[in-house]
Design brief:
heterodimer; A: 111 residues; B: 0% strand; elongated
Chain lengths: 111, 195
């Protein structure tokens, strides 16, 4: 990923317009799965906002939402997919290069 | 600030909230397992002495392995957190000279403790060396993941002084035991609670 066009293409993806979605993906890349109720509790956001964001991630094929039974009660578990992990890698690489470019630009402007 | 970077910083904050809870679960379990090891071993030794069985060393080795395996399993998950958070940290933070010095000091300490463990392999200290390695690794983890150490973490970091003092009076080992078990319980309560 060397050129600016490719970096900007990744970063301008509508998926990355919401910090909530990026945050959830970044977290899942490290922990693989989490229940809906845990996610809601940790992030302290309402159910519908979380559902909408998770649905978008699911539609992109980045997460899977499965219903599992814990102690006789159904719970929604959000699991990151292989595509989701690759997406996070690409995003982190793109953001790192982007930040580098901005810093270099600032240095050049200051000269 | 640039919108892309601003969104990333917000996302980083969200991800860290989730990571912190997971991290407290892992660390809490490690504190509990390691803290419970010594009293359990003492109890088994007492029982075996009373029943005068000759298989004590096998049973104790078995117990050590039984504690070590879940710790290694939890550690594997901790390493996964390390991988992704390190990448996030590289984007946000610039490594200062203090970070580099800390890194070097920790690596030297790791080597010294491992060497010490090899030297004392056939003595009773070998299992204590494992605790020191664990202690160093947790300190290193807190520093690298940039997670704030809470009161219970400080208690856990200080209480291994009991491992040194037990050379004078065996019962002082319980400073470590009580410290780590308490830290484990508080960490798990925090992980499953709201804060």
């Amino acid at each position: 990923m060397e050129n600016l066009k490719e970096i900007m293409e990744i970063l301008s993806d509508p998926l990355f317009s919401s910090p909530i979605r990026i945050g959830i993906l970044l977290a899942l890349a490290g922990i693989n799965k989490i229940t809906f109720s845990e996610l809601q509790k940790f992030l302290d956001i309402n159910k519908s906002t979380l559902s909408v964001n998770l649905k978008i991630l699911e539609n992109y094929g980045l997460v899977e939402i499965k219903t599992k039974i814990f102690n006789d009660r159904p719970r929604e578990v959000i699991i990151i997919t292989k595509k989701g992990k690759e997406f996070v890698e690409k995003y982190l690489e793109a953001i790192s290069k982007y930040k580098e470019m901005i810093e270099n630009q600032d240095k050049n402007d200051n000269k | 600030m640039n919108k892309v970077i601003e969104d990333f910083l917000k996302a980083d904050e969200i991800a860290r909230k989730i990571y912190y809870h997971e991290f407290k679960k892992y660390v809490g379990l490690i504190y509990l397992l390691a803290g419970a090891y010594a009293p359990l071993t003492e109890a088994v030794i007492l029982i075996l002495k009373v029943s005068s069985l000759s298989t004590m060393s096998y049973i104790l080795t078995g117990m050590f392995i039984a504690v070590l395996i879940p710790i290694l399993f939890i550690n594997d998950r901790l390493l996964r957190l390390h991988g992704i958070i390190s990448k996030m940290n590289k984007i946000i933070y610039k490594r200062s000279i203090y970070d580099q010095i800390y890194d070097i000091v920790m690596k030297i300490l790791f080597v010294l403790v491992i060497l010490g463990g090899i030297l004392y392999h056939f003595c009773n200290f070998s299992s204590l060396v494992a605790f020191w390695i664990l202690e160093l690794w947790l300190l290193y983890t807190f520093f690298h993941l940039k997670f704030k150490m809470r009161v219970e973490d400080w208690v856990a970091m200080i209480s291994p002084i009991g491992l040194i003092l037990q050379a004078f009076t065996g019962s002082l080992m319980f400073i470590f035991v009580i410290g780590w078990i308490t830290a484990g319980i508080i960490s798990l309560v925090r992980a499953y609670g709201k804060s």
